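Collaborator request, handled under Task 6.
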Amino acid sequence: MSKTRPPGKQQARLGAPGMALVVVLATLASLPAAAADTSAAEQLARFSAQAGAPGNAEQGRVLFTTRHGGAWSCSSCHGNPPTGTGQHASTGKDIAPLAPAFNTRAFTDSARVDKWFRRNCKDVLARECSAAEKADVLAYLIGLGR
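Structure tokens returned to the collaborator:
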């Protein structure tokens, strides 16, 4: 004798392929948001708003190419201009071009933008960059290749 379920209590039978699809979809739904949540222009707007002034490309160029009392400038690893593949000064690891016109992935992930500005500013300036400095550097980088 088979048991019947009341209406609305039917259980779907997915089989192995259906269950595999459910597992894949559940896994994808639990992953963090994909990269490319932003653009270089949006990052420039964010930092300019925080600074209360638009980024200044010339000040960004100077900040990028100058050693600020330490061993490195931004251009030590990213190149001058940062339109080709750079190389980390101590590890030798290749670094993708930083200028957005030469690297479509540059500045497209807010979390990575914040992480690398924090890390690299500490390496070059021995402190975190201000919002104005970030806006200036981005204004410089966005202007390359135009």
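The cover message to the collaborator said: "The longest helix spans residues 15-30. The longest strand covers residues 86-87. Please let us know whether this matches your experimental observations."
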